[in-house]
Amino acid sequence: MVALHDTDHNINWANKAYAESMGTSKKNIIGKKCYEVWLGKDEPCNNCPVQKAMDKGELDYNTKRYLHFESRSESYG
């Protein structure tokens, strides 16, 4: 999954896999805050990799493991 966020955490671009992982289309997430789309929050996540990257001026990432009970498969994001 790949997405491009701006400095205000808006999703400016996302690939199809990113949108499908949330059960929606790209047009429904472009322009929305990443933390709204991913977690339904109204503020950035704790230890946000986007914020860390902006603060440090270098790449940061975060890996989370989700279990999808419907398909019994796992995805990472």
Shape category = globular
> How many strand elements?
4
Query: What is the strand content?
Result: 15-25%
Order of helices and strands: EEHHHEE
Question: What structural class do the secondary elements suggest?
Answer: alpha+beta
Please, how many helices? Answer: 3
Mind explaining what this structure looks like?
The chain has 77 residues and is an alpha+beta fold. It has one domain (3-76). The protein contains three helices and four strands. Strand 1 (3-5) and strand 2 form a beta hairpin. The model has no long low-confidence stretch (mean pLDDT 81).
In brief:
With 77 residues, this protein is α+β, with helices and mostly antiparallel strands. The chain has helices at 16-20, 34-39, 49-56, and strands at 3-5, 11-14, 65-68, 73-76. The strands form 2 sheets. It has a two-stranded antiparallel sheet with strand order 1-2.
Topology diagram in text:
Layout: E1 3-5, E2 11-14, H1 16-20, H2 34-39, H3 49-56, E3 65-68, E4 73-76
Antiparallel strand pairs: 1-2, 3-4
Features:
25% helix, alpha+beta, two-stranded antiparallel ribbon, 3 helices, 77 residues
